[in-house]
């Protein structure tokens, strides 16, 4: 989330010191290899003052580009558009993108406002919603922005219609709502669009079967949380033997000695290799290079080793950069969000923060191991409050897990409702913490507060 202050807003009916607040969440987009290649930015636009929205709509309908005219005071809808654009330029949004391009819905007001040209052309894709009013003025503006190297996406396509036909020549990407589009129409529609050179994104993939169908039809990108669901037939490759990671986690839960950790790690060369890399990264080894396993354990510390091992469960077995691994990114972001959020609540200490981190990191561990989530959690010997939070959404841990899941979908109304039970946390703070957690997860391999890059 980012908060944008508007100086002396005109025609809004609001006080001069009013603020327009825009909140942002992100949703991953994967390529055909299952790696992160972008994020859709879910926007919660600022709310207009009472009575201002109708006035703005009338002005826009009378003259779609009028707000862009020099010397004319912007209408409320234009102020909202500028708040969103300025919010997208803030560092917290940029950090949460972790180097990936952003796909963001744009309104007419955003497109006609010249401040949109402050957004980098190589970092932002403009999604045109199916409800946008298409006329000569809009087409002319799209052509102008296209000439400045901005790229456009047709969003939420379910079937060809008049809006689709008018905008298709100017779109580089077509995003098809896979759950709402006709299954009979999809093969022909994708074939025609691919022949026309369009890049296709399948939207709304929350089941592995839908992903496999979209993949078979030749879609280039995939959006949804299918990758975080337990699979019945195949499980994800991990970068170290599962039993080794579970044994290490069980040992770490019992406050082991250095000698015990050393003995366990020596049984697993892959883990030793990762730990040596971790100890020699991010300034952990002060003054000299760590050369022995015992030195690595002492330099890293058991708490850090525990967190590293927890996230290592999600690391892809291929040589994949942390910031490109969707499952690890989701686990790290959830865990960090939970930790940051619980620290904002009354009477939360270090133990509560650690429990929140564990709740987030293990909230979908069945995606790695298969089988039931409950049986996997039992193997991990997690505490009852953590298991109750994950399995039944009970207690404050369950509430925080529910709110971060809502944030991942941009379900702002649900977040509002949950915040009533998480006071003093607000929806705006939830969005801000989500961006901070995403940024932390994405640069963890380069930060003294994060983790070493995990790769074979």
Secondary structure layout plus pairing:
Layout: E1 2-5, E2 19-30, E3 36-44, H1 52-62, H2 76-88, H3 91-97, E4 102-105, H4 108-112, E5 124-128, H5 136-147, E6 151-157, H6 162-167, E7 173-177, H7 186-195, E8 199-203, H8 208-216, E9 221-223, H9 242-252, H10 258-266, H11 269-279, H12 293-300, H13 302-312, H14 326-342, H15 350-361, H16 366-369, H17 373-379, H18 384-392, H19 395-409, H20 412-419, H21 427-442
Parallel strand pairs: 3-4, 4-5, 5-6, 6-7, 7-8, 8-9
Antiparallel strand pairs: 1-2, 2-3, 2-9
How would you sum up this structure, described in words?
The chain has three domains: 227 residues, Alpha-Beta Barrel (TIM Barrel); 71 residues, no CATH class; 125 residues, no CATH class. It has 21 helices and nine strands. It has an eight-stranded mixed β-barrel, surrounded by seven helices. The N terminus and C terminus are likely disordered.
């Amino acid at each position: 989330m980012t908060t944008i202050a508007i100086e002396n807003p005109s025609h809004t009916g609001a006080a001069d010191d009013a603020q327009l607040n825009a909140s942002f969440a992100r949703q991953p987009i994967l390529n055909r290899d299952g790696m992160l290649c972008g994020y859709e930015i879910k926007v919660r636009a600022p709310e207009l003052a009472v009575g201002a929205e109708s006035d703005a709509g009338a002005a826009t309908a009378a003259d779609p580009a009028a707000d862009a005219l020099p010397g004319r005071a912007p209408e409320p809808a234009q102020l909202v558009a500028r708040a969103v654009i300025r919010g997208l330029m803030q560092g917290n949004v940029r950090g949460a993108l972790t180097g990936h391009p952003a796909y963001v819905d744009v309104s007419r007001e955003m497109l006609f406002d010249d401040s949109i040209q402050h957004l980098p052309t190589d970092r932002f894709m403009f999604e045109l919603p199916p409800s946008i009013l298409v006329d000569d003025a809009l087409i002319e503006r799209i052509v102008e922005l296209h000439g400045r190297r901005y790229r456009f996406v047709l969003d939420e396509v379910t079937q060809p219609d008049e809006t689709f036909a008018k905008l298709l020549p100017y779109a580089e990407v077509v995003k098809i709502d896979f759950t709402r589009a006709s299954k009979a129409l999809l093969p022909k529609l994708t074939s025609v669009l691919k022949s026309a050179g369009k890049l296709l994104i399948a939207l709304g993939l929350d089941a592995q079967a839908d992903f496999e169908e979209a993949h078979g039809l030749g879609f280039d990108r995939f959006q949804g949380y299918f990758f975080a669901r337990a699979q019945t037939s195949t499980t994800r490759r991990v970068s170290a033997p599962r039993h080794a990671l579970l044994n290490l986690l069980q040992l770490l839960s019992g406050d082991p000695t250095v000698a015990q950790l050393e003995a366990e790690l020596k049984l697993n060369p892959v883990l030793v290799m990762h730990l040596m890399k971790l100890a020699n990264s991010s300034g952990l080894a002060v003054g000299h290079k760590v050369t022995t396993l015992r030195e690595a354990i002492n330099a890293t510390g058991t708490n850090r080793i525990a967190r590293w091992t927890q996230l290592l469960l999600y690391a892809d077995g291929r040589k994949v950069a942390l910031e490109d691994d969707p499952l690890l990114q989701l686990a790290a972001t959830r865990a960090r969000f939970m930790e940051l959020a619980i620290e904002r609540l009354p009477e939360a200490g270090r133990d509560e923060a650690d429990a929140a981190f564990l709740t987030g990191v293990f909230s979908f561990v069945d995606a790695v191991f298969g089988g039931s989530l409950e049986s996997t959690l039992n193997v991990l010997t997690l505490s009852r409050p953590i298991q109750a939070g994950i399995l039944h959404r009970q207690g404050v841990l369950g509430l925080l897990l529910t709110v971060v899941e809502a944030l991942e979908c941009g379900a702002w109304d649900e977040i509002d409702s949950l915040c009533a039970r998480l006071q003093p946390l607000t929806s705006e703070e939830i969005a801000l913490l989500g961006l901070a957690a995403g940024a932390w997860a994405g640069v963890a391999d380069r930060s003294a507060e994060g983790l070493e890059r995990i790769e074979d």
